[in-house]
Description:
single chain; 39% helix; 9 helices; alpha/beta; 13% strand
Amino acid sequence: MTALSADPICREHLTGRHHPETPERFDAVVEALRDSGSFDRMLPVGSRAITEEEMLLCHTSEYLRVAQRDVESGQAYLSTGDTDIDGSSWRAAIHAAGGVLDAVDAVMDGRARNAFCAVRPPGHHATASRGMGFCLLNNIALAARYAQRRHGVERVLIVDWDVHHGNGTQEIFYRDPSVFFFSTHQWPLYPGTGRADETGAGAGQGTTMNFPFPAGSGRREILSAVEDALIPAANGFRPDLVLISAGFDSRIGDPLGRFTLTDEDFEDLTRRVMEMADRHAGGRLVSMLEGGYNIEGLASAAAAHVKVLMG
């Protein structure tokens, strides 16, 4: 069974604000899952507030204080970066991250084979000490560290197909050989990181793999990167858990990116990543929503992704 984390608390962030990362994104994904018949066949997992101890697995205590202070003082923007906030943002962020950890529990405990987390705000731009790019907490980084600390997972593979580079995720694990980070993304584009020669450092050398592609790229480039580079790398790395930063702003028609992936392409990408999880990790896979700002496109792509996760 595929687990689903979709707490309505996640829609409270930026309610009433004019912003690309809108609560309607959450509504559209959930409605698409209902319309496709997937929602009622998925295992619902609860949502909880992530604890401070868990947040400290990836974020500094100073940053957590700053972010919470910014939200609770009524600021319109996070002081560390280009992230709009309102009075509900911290509550949404800590429950989004907590829901992701609950999904990890469901998969690692064997209650579900894999999981999809319809969460917001997104996370992959948040570094250890800085929220930025619409992100407050790095959900996928926290999931990886939590799986290692709570469940004894040794090696985690993170696959990021968002149109923007997951700079925060890369930075957190850049020197860590136990987490392999793979990203395809448009170049040049925000946040300006993710060059092909960024491959890790120290003990983590070789466990970061970036594929920056020009605007207009799509199936040929991204599927080839997965098939020709990631799959052989995963065969050598042998992950115990696979995580996906599922950014659907790489879909054709997104207002913030110029990639050309289709719903069928996302289905095939999902199959390839599932095959790696099946081969090395007993099928254990947790996917979480990142970008995707064309509401109709986001909904159809997410539904296609989940359809494949459910087999």
